[in-house]
User: Fold these one by one.
Assistant:
Number 1:
Amino acid sequence: MYKAWFPLTELWLDFEEAELDLSPDGTFAARLLVPGPVVGGLRLKGFDGRWAVRDGLLATAIAVSP
């Protein structure tokens, strides 16, 4: 989540400032507990992403639309 957050805000995001909800289908919702950045005139409340586990590795991805 931090790697999606920082380019938009250039601010630090601490562990206590976000909450993740993982779903068994390989998706997750990352909810901001602090005011989010304004993108395209709308304030973001969080990010949606995907996760996968394979060969002992966990991969996550969040895509931010321009």
Number 2:
Amino acid sequence: MHKAVFTFHTPHAPIIYDAVLPEEGDEGITRSMVSCKLKDETTLVLEAEATDIAALRAALNMWLRLMNVADEVSDLTCEMRRERHRV
């Protein structure tokens, strides 16, 4: 078994967690298992295990991309809210 653990510190941790949580129970993936945990209001922990390196890489590529998109969208929506309050 191969394993990778990532810890992310971001003010958007709860938003990112809610955005990626539906992907956690994906039954179609059999060579890898990924879990995302909200440790506290600013910390996310991503754990991935896989039977082989290629499966681990594929799972991490997908999950890290999902988390990055969720973070970017959170940044954009926060910025839009700030601009609305200035007007």
